[in-house]
Specification:
It is built from 22 helices and four strands. By secondary structure, the chain is mostly helical. Among the domains are: 50 residues, no CATH class; 57 residues; 121 residues, no CATH class. Helix 7 crosses helix 8. It is globular. The N and C termini lie far apart (51 Å).
């Protein structure tokens, strides 16, 4: 009898521990929707067998960098060197802009959308979009080869070290072209890059620096030019202002690396980046005590982005039910979640750039230096209608194309829509009176809750 009681107690303890150990489907959906839609099948089908810790580990511990799934587009560098050359006649420049520039912009856009559709690491692609929106540049002002190079920096270092990411970006031509630092001269300083470097990229707005700091950083950023033959940033010592200046109460003669060193030593850098990623992964309203705590760990890690994201995902705030379904999906998120959720086969572009653009997000074309605002900005009446049209058009085109190869394709998609998958889509199951496969798909894609993560 005593043995039976002991066994019963052990079973109860085991069940309680197992319940604490296992991640429920609501938590699994939350983690999935916030981390770039990674490991969809594992979380839908096996969440009962894994803990939160293991679920996070499976997503976060993917290799920091996957090479692009598709071959990089190739551009004729001589054409872009000719566009910048004073020796090239204006008529020839006009011809190049009309014939080559437009074509190459479209080629680069299509390449990135194909990369999004075919990536082996959705979190890496999510972070590539995040940093593209943080360190903004765009194809209206920056030539395609330079935007491609910058995109690869985001992809390579997006889950790596923030200091290394900042160094690579500041030594890359794209940001200098976009923010007019090529016009920053010793005799006539241009403050655009210096200002955005502090205000938008590292320290944030507030009393963390003075106008004089901006002016002095602008001096430190003089002398950097673009070699349009090699497409690299070069340093012209004679054009550089090497005078002694004071930046953050520290005196010296600085160049880019000296400025970066001062920025990385500033206490608000870790806080600003932590807060920016908090709003990406947790909520629109940062908890300042938590920001302080997590930012200290981020700084102590040597600015490892992966460690910062890990801290955010393990925080109580991330798992607070009040923060579930509280963030609005960007058009990129909306599209990518659809691809992963419904396991779309043979993914093609299907006018994806135009559809996403109408929904408010055209990659490589952020609206301005502050990037896409996100949040409720995505929920204007006009954009909501465009988002729903985008998904309907895409899914209908996918089915139409695939039915030519397999007449039963729609039925195959419908069978994938299990109750668990429906819950992942809109946190509830489809009403019983909706039973036609296409009607089920449209119901999920048009559901108001499908806009949230």
């Amino acid at each position: 009898m005593k043995i039976s009681i002991r066994i019963a107690i052990s079973l109860i303890v085991f069940c309680v521990n197992y319940s604490l150990y296992a991640i429920d489907i609501d938590d699994a959906r939350h983690l999935w929707s916030r981390t770039g839609f990674s490991n969809t099948e594992m979380l839908i089908n096996n969440h009962k067998n894994i803990s939160k810790n293991d679920a996070i580990k499976n997503i976060i511990d993917a290799p920091l960098y996957y090479p692009p799934a598709n071959s990089l587009p190739e551009f004729d560098n001589k054409i872009y060197a000719a566009l910048r050359s004073k020796k090239t006649p204006q008529k020839e420049k006009q011809r190049i802009r009309k014939e080559n520039l437009k074509k190459d912009r479209k080629l680069l856009q299509l390449w990135w959308y194909q990369q999004i559709l075919n990536t082996k690491n959705p979190l890496q692609e999510k972070m590539t979009v995040f940093w593209h929106n943080h360190f903004t540049s765009d194809l209206r002002k920056v030539f395609p080869p330079y935007m491609l190079k910058q995109n690869q920096i985001f992809r390579k270092h997006g889950m790596g070290n923030f200091k290394k990411l900042l160094q690579e970006i500041m030594h890359d031509p794209a940001i200098h072209i976009y923010l007019d630092n090529t016009k920053n001269k010793k005799q006539k300083p241009n403050e655009n890059l210096a200002r955005e470097l502090l205000e938008l990229f590292t320290l944030g707005e507030g009393g963390h620096y003075s106008e004089q700091d901006i002016k002095n950083i602008a001096k430190a950023l003089t002398g950097y030019r673009i070699d349009f033959n090699t497409q690299n940033l070069v340093f012209k010592k004679r054009q550089h202002d090497s005078s002694f200046v004071k930046i953050f109460d520290t005196n010296g003669s600085y160049s880019i690396d000296g400025v970066i060193k001062l920025i990385m030593a500033h206490p608000n850098t870790a806080k600003f980046i932590t807060e920016k990623l908090w709003m990406e992964f947790i909520s629109d309203t940062p908890d300042q005590k938590e920001i302080e705590r997590i930012s200290i760990k981020f700084r102590d890690s040597g600015y490892e982005i992966k460690e910062l994201i890990k801290e955010l995902l393990h925080s109580d705030s991330f798992w607070d039910k009040n923060n579930f379904n509280s963030l609005v999906k960007s058009p990129f998120d909306l599209f990518t979640s659809t691809i992963n959720l419904f396991q779309i086969d043979d993914t093609k572009i299907y006018k994806m750039p135009a559809l996403l653009s109408k929904s408010g997000q055209k990659l490589f074309y952020p609206p301005d230096v502050r990037g896409w605002r996100g949040g409720t900005y995505w929920l204007t009446t006009e954009l909501i209608i465009a988002r729903k049209k985008m998904l309907k058009k895409y899914i209908k085109q996918v089915i139409k194309t695939n039915k030519k190869k397999n007449p039963k394709y729609l039925s195959i998609i419908a069978k994938k829509m299990t109750k668990s998958r429906q819950f992942f889509a809109v946190t509830e199951t489809i009403p019983n009176n909706i039973n036609k496969p296409m009607a089920k798909l449209i119901y999920l894609l048009s559901h108001d809750k499908y806009n949230f993560k």
